[in-house]
Prior knowledge:
By secondary structure, the protein is an all-alpha fold. The chain has 3 helices and no strands. α1 packs antiparallel against α2 and α2 runs antiparallel to α3.
Amino acid sequence: MTTTVPEGEAIRNAVKWISGFLQEDPDQAVQKLVNEAILRFDLSPKDADFLIRFYREEEANK
């Protein structure tokens, strides 16, 4: 299943920000990073839902 990132600078920056932390330490709590990114990048509810689902699917595919 291919996931398309929604348009918008904030959501792209949030994904990059989370990915950077996970590259440094893959054992970090993903949900904590996602919640912080939602606040840090002031994501809309739609973008926040996308981010939550995206990383939930990533964790399930590990």
